[in-house]
Amino acid sequence: MFTPHGPSLRELAVQALSSVERGYDLLAPKFDHTPFRTPDSILQAVERALSALGPFDHGLDLCCGTGAGMGVLRAVCRESVIGVDISAGMLTVGRDQEPRPAEPGPRVAWVRGDALALPFGPVFDLVVSFGAFGHFLPREFPELFGQVHSALRPGGRFAFPLPAPAPPSSPWYWALLGFDTAMRVRNAVWHPPFVMYYRAFRLGDVRRELERAGFDVELYALPEFGSRRDGSPRCRMVVATRRDDSSQRREASHSSLAAS
Q1: Does the keyword Glycoprotein apply (predicted)?
Q2: If DSSP codes are grouped into helix, strand and coil, which group holds residue 173?
């Protein structure tokens, strides 16, 4: 299905009836031959935008899958790049496909871990993620963003692309609505659940939860994808910068004194 090298309809059905972790273990060998892999056009646009903000020293690809976003980090990070994912199968494929650099570059590592329980301290200057947020329910966003916050150094950045939602006049609007509805029905009648909802990650909610988690949020238009009829970008890069904890404590202290 999708391409001659992609998964069959039966293989996709077996994946969809599995847990997220097991499903991606099964799909991993053929994942890069599906539309689920982040397109190179988005990866290249984000790399260009991050290059203007960097360079960075240590980068983390959150929910890295087979490593499509790892190339972005290798291009903008000088010291180290780590990919973390819950699926051992996806990590194995990513590790096996790791290109041999023509010249010295950042150290690269692949780590199995849960995005809601990251095994890192505040060591990263940059965290990126591509196409993985549909695997988290809105009630999990505070925990997810809190984990990213704890893995970043003060002043570190969390960056990810966020396409504008399709309007109701677009066939994509109805296709994604149908997919999300089918997944909700599937999860209501079949266990274990397979969480993947394309329409649950909305900019307004995401921005609010990022700010609550201790980030300052900026939006960067990705001009490569043009504009909608109302002039808004078709795709943005969200950049959330971790606030300095000492500054937050001083602000809270001043607010408390002013209130008294």
Answers
A1: no
A2: helix
